[in-house]
Amino acid sequence: MIKRGQYGIYQGKEYSLGSEDGEFVNLISRDYIELKHGFIPHPLDNKFLSKKVKKEDLEKAYYITPYVIYKGREFGIAAGDGSTSSIIIGTTYKSEADELGMRNVNKSEYELEVELKDVQLMEERKPIWGFSF
User: Fold this and answer.
1) Which of 46, 50, 59, 133 is most buried, with most CB under 10 Å away?
2) pLDDT confidence of residue 84
3) For the whole prediction, is pTM greater than 0.90?
4) Could you report the per-residue pLDDT of 23-35, keeping only the tens digit for each?
5) Residue 39 confidence class, pLDDT cut points 50, 70, 90
6) Which residues are CB-neighbours of 26 under 8 A, at least 6 positions away?
7) What are φ and ψ of residue 2, in 5° steps?
């Protein structure tokens, strides 16, 4: 799975972070073991569990932006979550796009479908809500 979005550490474990309202945030999990730890089925999709906690109870909170290294260069991920064997990478640089055989999908936007086995998956993590690393 390719992580993207808000994540946090709560009681030593990493969770995806859902909606937040001031001092509270929802932890999101797919692990039904979490029912023993105060999580409840999400009202819109019971494949997910959620638990409302105070932001101050998080050990860390950060935003993850995934990217890949492909043929020695960094690219953003335009589509794909790692659930299939390929993703779509993108660039706005025409010369780079031409060199790699990328297709033009919009004005100054180019994409290429690549196999996950051919890229190195990376993450940039930036602290949010006043947290630091």
Assistant:
1) 50
2) 86
3) no
4) 999 999 999 999 9
5) very high
6) 17, 18, 19, 20, 50, 51, 52, 53
7) -95, 120
